[in-house]
Amino acid sequence: PLLMMAIRGMDYVIHRRILDEETVDEIGAKFESNIPLSEKVKRALRCSVPRLKKCLLQRFPLIKWLPHYPIRETAIGDLISGINGGIMQIPLSIAYAMIAAVPPVFGLYAAFYPMLVYFIFGTSHHLIIGGYTVLALMMRGLGDRLAPDSDFMIWDNETNSSVVDTVSQDAKRVQVVVAVTLLSGLFQILLGLVQFGVMVTYLSEPLVRGYTTGATFHIFMSQFGNIFGVTYVRHNGPLMLPKNFIEFLFVLHVTHIPTLVVFVVAMVGLVVAKRVSEFLSKKLPVPVPVELLAVIISTLVSWKLNLNESYKIAVVGNIPSGLQPPSLPPTSLIGEVIGDAFAMAVVGYGMAISLGQVFALKHGYKVDSNQELIALGLSNAVGGLFQSIAISGSIPRSLVNESTGGKSQVLAGAVSAIVILIALFSIGSLLSDLPKAVLAAIIFVNVTGTLKQFHDIPALWKTSKVDMFIWLATFIFILLLNPDLGLPAAIGFSMLTVIFRTQRPKYSLLGQVQGTDIYRPFENYSQAVPGIVIFRSSATLYFANADMYKNALSKKSGLDVHKILATKKKQEAKRQKLQKENAKRTNGEGKEEGGSEHVGFIIFLIIIHSEPPVFSSFCVAFCVLFQIYRDYGKIGIEVLLAGCQTGVMDQLKIGGYFSDKVTKSCVFSTIHDAVLYCQPVRRTAEVILWNFVCTQFKK
Q1: d(C-alpha 690, C-alpha 81), whole Å
Q2: Who is most buried in 235, 429, 625, 636, counting CB within 10 A?
Q3: Domain topology for 507-571+599-697
Q4: What's this model's pTM, rounded to 2 decimal places?
């Protein structure tokens, strides 16, 4: 700290001449670095042993870290973590399957096949993949749309009424879920191969948190039937949530009390057990598998008291043992689920990469976003072939993996998969008496934590009102339009806020901080450059705000160019008329007020070099700059540019901005160079500096 204070207190002096871009190019010996497209293609297709090795290590991370796996240091922790994670995954996987409205065994498949694939191709050391509540909810909505109850109604002679053929409906729903899982995996693989891992940047944190909060209410609604022991008409499409809730209220009076009692007892027991587990977490080497204990205890009680037959409490039923052979879903379903598959691919990847990056930042390693996209896609694709539901990053499993000492997905993931495999072959008949109300309680306990995200609203109100509106809009979209349609609507609204921000930039006048080459807004800093006005806009210059930008420039500078030009034309016409009347009065009569003044005008332009502007957008910006140079030049104001990056200079050159009159000598390296250039006595009168700040030209 003392050294930093000493360094900050040091003065420094730099002696150099004023530099424009032409001089900088000469001093720096600039050369053209543009590579022809043909050469880029050749380099991309060129194959060599080092490149092949790099490609293999990138696509198969297992090859890189497995030979260096520290067995003595991390094997025990990974083993313990894997066993606990696998035990914890059993009840959660069954619960995810119930949310997706498919038989429980397909949730267990999601905890087995994808994990084996991910541990070969994944780059996160702590991320454990598995079922995800939002994805399960999206699959349920898709199943309700493509396999509704109305398509499977049969006549029951015992009750003399129509009932749902659940066997046929479950078979259809499984086909739908498998199809959307496989297709979402293929989408993720394709996006990963084209290096589209950056798409997660469009899923901002307020959007994701608003999305998960809204999806929580859909999850609650999906379990009301299992909680209250009632059946009601289910609706699909927009406004599904309020419609289903109204239908539920109509049958609330026939609540099955024994089922509700089981749910309440299980809910209270889980909450108390989790609080005790959290209290003892520092004293115990591994966390208590609360959910598994709830499943075991409730299954034993249900079996002993015969709850299904004696009290008509719905139970899971028999779970098939073993594994399913690989199979492809019907091709007729592909067209019907393609949109949902893409949405699930984006949501699943967004959750997984966000969770993986949190662990990577905490433990000091890097996660390859594109490789994660491919790994997740392969996990979903292989899982879909083996009848698995869609997967993403599993928050509870990943936290358990980290808290119990898991350092790598080698043993943690593999051991978890082995535990699930044992469960698939052994517990099928043992869990047949598990009450569905208990699974509903497990779901409620695990998702109610997302309701705490409502605290984001007052926090965002203080920090960023735009982000708060994104959160609220996403939440409302999910409630009213459902998770599948709500996601694109939320992303679209988020994009609109970006446009809104560029449409509402902050225009300000800058002044020089005394004794420095630093320039700050007048509203915050009182020291200004004498005789110089510096104008700055915080927004990108593109077609939507071009007119607004020119109007703000005119207002801030106090110069109405068009009005001055009109006045100048009238004076010129008057002067010519007077010339004809009296040749002796030709000198000075037509002189415009301020017309002979030479006023300097500097534009400070910045563009991010890594993202070149779209040509159409740059064309608009170029036209605006040219108009400003032309119009202000007509009234005696000289236009200069300052602080432009190389990419901008090249685009200006290509666009034809530079000419015999407009050269690189009109462009300066910094705003201070431009100020110093304007100060010699030969440059008279007032000098206006226009500081045009823009991070990139956008379409």
Answers
A1: 60
A2: 625
A3: Transcription Regulator spoIIAA (3.30.750)
A4: 0.74
